[in-house]
Structures are given as structure tokens and as C-alpha cells.
Amino acid sequence: MSAADRPVATPKRPVYLNLFAIRQPIPAIVSILHRISGALLFLVGIPLILTGVQSSLASAERFAAFEAAWSSPIAKLVLLALVWSYLHHLLAGLRHLILDVHIGLDLKAARMSAALTLVLALVVTLAIGMRLW
Amino acid sequence: MVSPHVHVPVGAHYGWRDWLVQRVTAIVMLAYTALMIGLALWNGGFDYATWRSIFANGAFRVVSFLFMASLLWHAWVGVRNILMDYVKPAGARLLLECIVVAVLVAYLGWTISVLWGGA
Predict the structure, then answer these.
(1) Contact A84, A121 (CB under 8 A)
(2) Cα(B77)–Cα(B105) distance, rounded to whole angstroms?
(3) Does residue B8 sit in helix, strand or coil?
(4) Global confidence as pTM
(5) How far does the CA of residue B78 sit from the closest CA of chain A (Å)?
(6) What is the ipTM of this complex?
(7) Closest-CA residue in chain B for A37?
(8) Which of B55, B79, B111 is opposite residue A57, by nearest beta carbon?
């Protein structure tokens, strides 16, 4: 059925789903970052943890080599991205657990806790980044 | 006439179980994270000798295994949710899900070999 055949009563609704043009509320931003950080942890974090623990336990030389590998700026950036992913994912998850027991469900509190999650993860990552450099 | 109490005979009903798994595994990982931060603070960071001695402890290996198993199960629930949302063709989604399962099972094997395979 084409648009012209529709009954007159059906209003023609605008379809406007440009995600980059819609201003998202803070809980939505925290939510999509929860997903993105989770994907990063799966794709990069898990294999890195396993190689890291394996090589650092292998011998004193490989422990030293593993430490030295983090001296390059690119490696530091990767590490910081993962630190942020872990922190954001952990805090956003903790927020979910608290919401699950019906604490902070009203709009104002939910926005506050979302902002806190976003800011805290970034601030702690920044602090760790400043120590790394 | 339709009864309002009809049991819906569709769906695999794993949604609520996934919800619970995601929370239980999250709490296990939270506890392990707190333990690791505590150990790092207690030892003033990790040098090679301390790091080795921590992993030489049998109970710590078991707890570490519990963390990794939780992480991998948690990752499965999360990644499958992502695939269900964005990969619409059933064949492609099934293939990707199989790859993810294979990778996660391989990671579990790798975890065991790292924790108990060496000295």
C-alpha cells in the first residue's frame, strides 16, 4: 500500500533517526558506552589479560620485558583505553545493581548517578594516565 | 474467548536467567577486583617475586579461575546481546555466535593452562 492509498486519518509521521543529531540524555550515553566498553574488553582486554599473566609468570626476564612493553606512548594509550573501559563498565554495572534493588529510580537520581558514572570513570582514568606519563 | 492467563508458548525463556548470570558473574568480578587492588596496596605494587608467590597459592589460582570463568560467561551474554541487536541475518548471526563461543572456550582452556600448566 503506497502512502497515497492510506486512510486520511493516518498521520504522516516524520522519520528522523539520525543518532548523531538526536541529543541523548546522560543515561543513554552511559548505556551505549557500557556496551562499547564491554565490546572493547571482549576484543582486546581478555586476550591481553591472558598473554599478560602468562608472560609475566614465565620468568623474571619476561616479567621485565612485559613491564618494558608499556613504555611506548601507543601502548600507554591502549592501556588507558582499557583502564577506562574496565572502570566505566564496572561503574555502569554497579549502577545497574543499585537500580535493581530500587535505589535511585526517579529521573533526577538516575541522571545524577549516570553523570557520576561518566565523570568518575574519566577522572580516575585521567589520574592513572598522569601517573603513567 | 481468550483467557487473560494464557501461558505464552514462545521464546526460550533464557532472558531472566541471562539477567541473573550477568549480575552474579559481575559480583564475582567485583570481589576479585577488590582483592587485586587490596593485594597491590598491601604489597606496594607487584615485583616478580611477589607476583610469582601470589600465583603459587592454590586458593588464589582457584579464585582466579572463578574470576576468568565469570568473565568469559559474562562476555558471552553481553556479546550475544550485541549480535542479536545489530546482526539481523540469522545465518551470519549464528556463524558469529559460533565463533564467539569457540573463542571463549579456547580462552577457558588457555586460562587453565596459564594457572596450572606451568610450575
Answers:
(1) yes
(2) 14
(3) coil
(4) 0.86
(5) 7
(6) 0.87
(7) B78
(8) B55
For residue B115, CA distances in Å to A26, A114, B38 come to 41, 37, 21
Q: Which residue from A44, A80, A79 is spatially nearest to B107, judged by alpha carbons?
A: A44
CA dihedral A118, A124, A127, A132 (to 10 degrees): -110
Measuring CA to CA, which residue among B79, B72, B67 is closest to residue B27? B67
Between CA A112 and CA A116 the distance in angstroms is: 6
Gyration radius from chain B CA atoms: 20
Q: Which residue has the cell 555466535?
A: B97
Strand, coil or helix: what is B71? Answer: helix
CB contact set of B48 (below 8 Å; sequence gap of 6+): A56, A60, A63, A64
Closest chain B residue to A86 measured between Cα atoms?
B33
Residue ranges of domains in chain B: 16-116
Select the residue of A42, A57, A64 nearest B118 (Cβ to Cβ). Answer: A57
CB B104 within 8 A of CB B76: yes
Q: Are A93 and B31 in contact, with CB atoms under 8 Å apart?
A: no
Q: Look at the domain B16-116 and name its fold.
A: 3 helical TM bundles of succinate and fumarate reductases (1.20.1300)
pLDDT tens digits in sequence order for chain B, 119 residues long: 555 565 666 677 778 899 999 999 999 999 999 999 999 999 999 999 999 999 999 999 999 999 999 999 999 999 999 999 999 999 999 999 999 999 999 999 999 999 999 74
Q: Is the confidence at residue A104, as pLDDT, over 80?
A: yes
Question: Which CATH architecture group holds A30-132?
Answer: Up-down Bundle (1.20)
A3: pLDDT strictly greater than 60: no
Domain limits, chain A: 30-132
